Amino acid sequence: MTIEKTEERLSFQAEVTKLLDIVVHSLYSDRQIFLRELISNASDACDKLRYEALTNPGLREDAGAFRITLRVDAEARTIEVADNGIGMNRDELIDNLGTIARSGTEAFMQQLAASDRKGDASLIGQFGVGFYSSFMVAERVEVFSRRAGEPQGWHWASDGGGAFTIGEAEVAQPGTRIVLHLREDAKEFLETWRLTSTVKTYSDHIAIPVVLLGTDDEGQPTEETLNAASALWTRPRSEITDEQYKEFYHHVAHAFDDPWHTLHFKAEGAIEYTGLLFIPSQKPFDLFQPERKTHVKLYVNRVFITDDAPDVLPSYLRFVRGIVDSSDLPLNVSREMLQHNPVLRKIQGGLVKRLLGDLKKRAEAADDYATFWEAFGPVLKEGIYEDFERRSDLLELARFRSSTTEGWVSLADYAARMKTGQEAIYYITGDDPEVLKRSPQLEGFRAKGVEVLLLTDPVDEFWINAVPSYQDTPLKSAAAGATGLEAVTDAEAETEAAPKDETAPADQIEALTTALKAALGDAVKEVRPSSRLKESAVCLVSEEGDMSLHLERMLKQAGQDMGRKSTRIMEVNPSHPLIKGMAARAAAGGGDTAEHMADLAQLLLDQALIVEGEAPSDPVAFARRLSAVMAGTV
Ligand SMILES: Nc1ncnc2c1ncn2[C@@H]1O[C@H](COP(=O)(O)OP(=O)(O)OP(=O)(O)O)[C@@H](O)[C@H]1O
């Protein structure tokens, strides 16, 4: 192998330099993971070539079976990890090994910056740093690589400082060979037993043989395959340990947490396929990216096809990681053919059924399920809106915060403890459960001890409108339309309740609501007496079927309110002293000048807005009016 003299020296992306500085200087524990990372990359590279060769068989000419080889040179203090996979050309070497494209590493850097725990080794265990972990054990790393289908080989080298060199090199075979020049303090990895046990622990699940090359006492070459070298999912469940599942999950998901749930099965029947799926315990970083991409890898007869097939799982299960392997798809299936493929649709149906079935079982252990729900509930809820067929299963799996109980509540829990005469499951949407709990719209519900579900995920605004009822009980907003609370009887709450507050006479209230509406104009759709207020003077509600206040606010924040006319209704509390006083004056006529009434009306609306978490429409005018009113009282 010759390396040309004309090597170019290039700088790492600034983030890589920072990352390498941490890797080189601060990380001493779990250093053996470098081997897992390099073997994992080598295995991915073989998968990629196997797939490309399906449509371009020339790429695999003369290449023997796929394998990953390890070689140790104790004298030179080097370890080599080589593969006959896809390889990299100059640009790929620069891009892949000189910048950080991986969301995991980026997140690692962000977390590190945020936590100020520089050099915290536990963080690296959580994220992994892929190829760069080589520098945990090596003072210098060389990469010899040749892209399959290209004649030119390349040599990349770095000592983990701010720069690397790259130049042409003669590389006999397509693939990648990584040479680690070990640091003095990492000599332990020159021991064969150390390498062997590390491979067995971390890379046994790799489907390609990992072969240790050596020489025997007579100087003859030896080969020892260190891993089981069969795809993990093809082995019987009884022969796979939790540890092996976990390592496979790390490999396939590029993740470093433990799986919260593992589902391994073989479906037999009209369509045969094997699934090995994992639900992570920690949120992956791309969960809320707009593409909503799913991440299950598709194999056909153990040949990797794609991790980008849109129909393997629906988007609302995009937190699931793992593989599906089917012999009922053609091996030369192109990614385009996978769109709307009937076999794949059936497989998807089977996977969703099993996953939701497993979730249902695990939901029986409430605390354990809560950890899942907190991480992935907002994503799963998208399915209530999108997957009509599974809507009722998903509704059973959904959990909510509630106005009357701590922790998570299911619709079934709620339905079981509804009050006599209560005809709907009530909910309210907003940003913060604690603020929602105290909102004036819920005062009447509190007084009657009626539970209200607090929906605080943005997605709630969408599915809730698509779901009219749960098991024939209507779902109803506590902040829209009439409450229906009159029919609810609650023995406990009734006896404890204070004597009914006297309300202003209906004609006075009517005079007041007419005057307020006249003063406020289009700022509100209607002003009316409230049956839901107990302590507050006013609140805002919407009409049933209209956009909720929270959604209106969300759209406004996203710059999408498009000058829509407000659909808000201002409700006044006929038993509140302020409203009673105003109503009496409004009915008497001439009690308040039009100007004064306008100020009071605006102040009422502004305070209702503030309670909703919004700013008054004109803060300066608000302050002026408030001061004027206060001046009247001092
Ligand atoms: N042996 C290899 N053959 C071909 N390409 C490789 C090889 N090793 C690394 N690469 C390329 O370099 C990229 C960066 O590797 P790195 O290990 O840093 O991150 P990753 O593989 O994307 O993520 P992770 O290590 O978490 O699996 C890979 O995505 C791949 O494109």
Please give a structural write-up:
This protein is of the alpha+beta class and 634 residues long. Helices cover 37% and strands 19% of the residues. The chain has 4 domains: 8-229, Heat Shock Protein 90 (2-Layer Sandwich); 233-372, 2-Layer Sandwich (Ribosomal Protein S5, domain 2), CATH 3.30.230; 412-496, Rossmann fold (3-Layer(aba) Sandwich); 506-630, Four Helix Bundle (Hemerythrin (Met), subunit A) (Up-down Bundle). The strands form 4 sheets. The protein has a 9-stranded mixed beta sheet with strand order 1-6-5-4-7-3-2-8-9. Strands 10-11-14-12-13 form a 5-stranded mixed beta sheet, with helices on both faces. A 5-stranded mixed beta sheet has the order 15-17-16-19-18. Helix 17 packs across helix 20. It is elongated and about 115 Å long. The model has no long low-confidence stretch (mean pLDDT 87). Bound molecules: adenosine-5'-triphosphate.
Task: Write the topology of this structure.
Elements lengths: L7 E4 L2 H13 L6 H23 L12 E6 L4 E6 L6 H9 L4 H13 L5 H7 L10 E9 L6 E6 L4 E7 L5 E8 L9 H11 L7 E6 L5 E5 L16 H12 L5 E9 L5 E8 L14 E6 L2 E4 L14 E6 L15 H21 L3 H15 L1 H5 L4 H7 L3 E2 L8 H6 L8 E5 L3 H5 L5 H5 L4 E4 L4 H7 L2 E2 L2 E5 L13 H6 L9 H15 L5 E4 L8 E5 L6 H9 L10 E5 L4 H12 L5 H18 L7 H13 L3
Parallel strand pairs: 2-8, 12-14, 16-17, 16-19, 20-22
Antiparallel strand pairs: 1-6, 2-3, 3-7, 4-5, 4-7, 5-6, 8-9, 10-11, 11-14, 12-13, 15-17, 18-19, 21-22
Adenosine-5'-triphosphate binds next to helix 2 and helix 3.
